[in-house]
Design brief:
Mean pLDDT: 84
CATH superfamily of the largest domain: P-loop containing nucleotide triphosphate hydrolases
Helix content: 40-55%
Structural class: alpha/beta
Distance between the termini: 77 Å
Low-confidence stretches: none
Strand content: 5-15%
Number of strands: 15
CATH topology of the largest domain: Rossmann fold
Length: 517
């Protein structure tokens, strides 16, 4: 059922007061006026700046304007005096519904009881919900939906029609480019989408499907204003990730899963993935690279921002953060080190009064029931802190184990970091360096190359094979100092998680010489 149909049914059923939570007043009014025309009703709109006026009256017009109806009680009196069937749209009425405005609350309740025996309806339009207990049974709350793909496509059509008259603006939109642009704009209001399309045109004198980053920048504004999520404008790509071929292939196959063709084919939107493994092996880098691969905004879910001092505020913060993520969907939600974030969720609540457990429960419920295309990328290092509820199938699509890189992967990682620093990998004996980097993580290999660069710079010479080899030999990898913990992690992952580097049933075992002493 469409929103317009649902709204008309409630008006016909004589619901007295409807509360629409939205900031898009300009989209609400045409829908209300269309319903009123079908039902033979008049439409009036109220704002504290104009008073009660017929719908469509411009803000400059003084005709039909009464200064007395700027007062909410006087405006509600006018609703009672109206004899003919009508719909009254009250904009930003929520400040008058706080506990200190009891006279307005009482008057609205009186009007609500009167409207049950009339053909009049009050619609409150506000971006925030403020419903006092006295009106809880009289008000019906509705969430006004964000623009659909069809709405945004229609907006783009109108903009393109206007642009065709401007010869200096270049239009470079094929079907694929148009799809990318409209898809990126999902989650914006029509006003926000129109603004960002206009910004692209003014900035480049052109409009193309390659301008999705400008749309993401507009979404970044929404995220910043929430103060709960962090927007990552990442430059990383999978070209900078060595190894992990199975994970890369899995993600590549899902890169088009958010398109209309995927929906028509019957594919559900992917839910998420848990990357479990050794520290420094590229889990966080993968989360950032997915954003570039799928061309979706990356939002970082920082659990530290969620916890508030007031009882119940932490759970409310999580719900607000989730709502922001869904409002800019399709998007990627990155929960870094989820094992540390929810470490206390399985305890008895002695340390924090059970706040962590309640926050975790709110997050888990959303993971199971979410319908918005928000892809969750969770990373973890310590499986002992992972609650078993998180690992159940249905909440996330797959669990990948990211192990220490094997010898071919170490060669690839060495090549990536050498190229990143302006050196040609062909000038180095990568097999020798990869053998010297046995048991090294990707982060440790990168740090060894940085150390070698420092040595070469200090010696005022170009980076040589010997510099890198010495840096590798002087480094003690974490895998040696934490051998027991990593062995325990590998044992747990065997059969429970999918290896990010090798397919199931395929093992790459590096031979070690065994000696007797």
């Amino acid at each position: 059922m469409s929103f317009a149909t649902e709204l008309e049914i409630l008006i016909r059923a004589r619901y007295s007061i409807l509360y629409l939570q939205t900031a898009e007043e300009l989209r609400v009014l045409p829908i209300v006026m269309e319903i009123a025309q079908r039902r033979g009703k008049k439409v009036y709109e109220w704002a504290h700046s104009t008073g009660l006026v017929p719908a469509g009256t411009s803000i400059q017009s003084q005709k039909n304007r009464s200064a007395t109806t700027k007062d909410p009680v006087a405006a509600l009196d006018q609703v009672l005096d109206q004899i003919e069937p009508a719909i009254f749209v009250f904009k930003d009425f929520h400040p008058f519904l706080s506990r200190s405005n009891y006279a307005v609350i009482r008057k609205l309740k009186d009007v609500a009881l009167h409207l049950k025996n009339s053909f009049k309806t009050i619609i409150l339009v506000s971006p925030v919900v403020e419903i006092p207990a006295e009106l809880d049974k009289e008000i019906t709350l509705l969430s006004f939906p964000l623009p659909t793909k069809e709405d945004l496509s229609g907006l783009l059509d109108r903009i393109l029609a206007d642009l065709r008259e401007l010869k200096q603006v270049q239009i470079d939109l094929d079907e694929a480019g148009r799809e990318r642009l409209v898809q990126a704009a999902l989650g914006l209001t029509l006003g926000e989408a129109e603004n960002v399309f206009a910004k692209i045109i003014v900035k480049d004198s052109r409009l193309s499907g390659e301008d999705v980053n400008e749309v993401f920048a507009e979404k970044q504004q929404i995220i910043r204003k929430s103060g709960l999520l962090e927007y990552y404008a990442t430059q990383e790509s999978f070209a900078q990730v060595g190894g992990l071929s199975v994970l890369k292939d899995w993600l590549n196959k899902r890169s088009a899963a958010f398109t209309a063709e995927a929906r028509a084919f019957g594919l559900p939107a992917p839910k998420g993935v848990l990357l479990l493994g050794v520290q420094g092996c590229g889990k966080s880098l993968c989360a950032k690279s997915i954003s570039a691969l799928w061309q979706l905004p990356l939002l970082r879910f920082d659990m530290g921002r969620m916890f508030g001092s007031l009882v119940g505020s932490s759970e409310e913060n999580v719900r607000r953060a989730i709502a922001v993520a869904e409002s800019v969907a399709p998007a990627i939600l990155w929960v870094d080190e989820i094992d540390k974030a929810f470490a206390g969720s399985g305890g008895g609540g002695a340390s924090d009064g059970g706040t962590t457990a309640r926050v975790f429960g709110t997050f888990l419920t959303w993971l199971s029931e979410k319908t918005a295309p928000v892809f969750v990328v969770a990373t973890a290092n310590d499986i002992s802190h992972l609650p078993p509820e998180l690992l159940r199938k249905g909440r996330l699509d797959e669990i990948f184990f990211v192990d220490l890189p094997a010898e071919p992967e170490r060669r690839e990682i060495l090549g990536v970091h050498l190229r990143k620093r302006g050196r040609s990998p062909e000038q180095f004996d990568l097999p020798v360096l990869a053998a010297a980097a046995h048991d090294f993580s990707g982060a440790e290999i990168e740090e060894a190359i940085n150390s070698a660069l420092y040595e070469a710079f200090y010696a005022q010479s170009e980076l040589q094979q010997s510099h890198v080899l010495n840096a590798l030999q002087q480094t003690v990898p974490l895998a040696r100092t934490m051998d027991e913990q990593i062995s325990r992690l590998r044992t747990w992952a065997d059969g429970r998680a999918r290896n990010a580097s090798t397919e199931r049933g395929v093992r790459i075992a590096e031979q070690r010489r065994k000696v007797e002493l």
